[in-house]
Amino acid sequence: MSAQPAAVPAPRYRHGLVIGKFYPPHAGHLSLIRQALACCERVTVEVLASSAESVSGELRADWLRVCLPSARVVTGVDDEPVDYASPTAWQAHTAVMLSLLDPADGPVDAVATSDSYGAELASRLGASWLQVDPGRQALPVSGRRIRSDPARYWWALPAPVRAWFVRRVAVVGAESTGTTTLARALSDHYRLPQVPEFGRQWSRQRPGGLDAAWASVEFDLVARVQAQWEDEAAALTARPLLITDTDVLATSLWHERYMGSRSASVEALAASRRPDLYLLTGDEIPFVQDGLRDGEHIRHDMQESFRRTLAAGPVPWVELQGSHEERMAEAIALIDELAAEPRPMSPPLSEAHVGASTMSDGLRVGAEREKTAAGPHDDVLTDALEEC
């Protein structure tokens, strides 16, 4: 007789609550929510964003929904001052939390946190307190540390959050200006995943080949797939950097070249996903026919169109000329400078407006104990303020 699988124990609680800024979501947050899901029939995750923060609460909630679809993730604005010693502040924060709950889920009977404020919050909600990984011993990471150095804590970031932090460099240019050669070489230099040009692949496989007239809808397809390839690579890259061979803005210029005008839909997509730097490959080198190119006679006009468009836009750009080695050297210097600065995030409300002096004596003692256990480089006081 084959062995029977062990019965899965029933959840101990009906409705669990996890709160935080999730600024940004990281492995510690996901572990905390998974622990709550394991012992609660349903779990509400509340993203308590403030107007001082530069990443919207809804985007953070979307990231969590992708990572943990079985949790109910909601978001609200909480600009109340963080003061653990103030009953008024506690009441204000609790009111925001209660307003985000769905009455159909029933009252909260479990609150899951890592930090010591969970005891007070659970008491105010008439719930049990589930403390998970106190002092962050298992997963020594916090949103504050990630904001200051995302590359160091890259291991702790879920894929959609990684994609947001990635610094993106788009290599663009007219036909036969060395864009693909440079993009590939730079990706190899930084050991990054390749992001090829989908438009080139589509040119090979499109019905009718190069002789058939182009349709506007084809450029919508090219733009969407190019954006998808870029985002997939950004989620997989081993560091917060990505080099792309062309981008959606370039697709808009090719639409104008073939259709006589810009595409509103492609332009809108391009405006929603601007890179951090454009590298424009110069057109001073000879034209080389590869069997797909058909614009030698207008190559310099196309290059001028790129220059005008980039000059009118908000993204920094540099035109690279000279030999491949000279282009590489200049590009690497520019990218190294860009990659040295993490994507900026404004400080959360707690860091911007609250000092440790606002903490109650009881919470201070608990947090200092956690800080000692976690090590001299951890600032649990700040982390606790941030997550409440």
Automatic annotation (TrEMBL):
Taxonomy, superkingdom: Bacteria
Gene Ontology molecular function, alphabetical: nucleotidyltransferase activity
Domain NadR/Ttd14 AAA: 168-327
Keyword check for Transmembrane: no
Keywords in alphabetical order: Nucleotidyltransferase, Transferase
Residues spanning the membrane: none
Chaperone recorded as keyword: no
Pfam families assigned: AAA_28
Protein name: Putative nicotinamide-nucleotide adenylyltransferase
Taxonomic source organism: Actinomyces massiliensis F0489
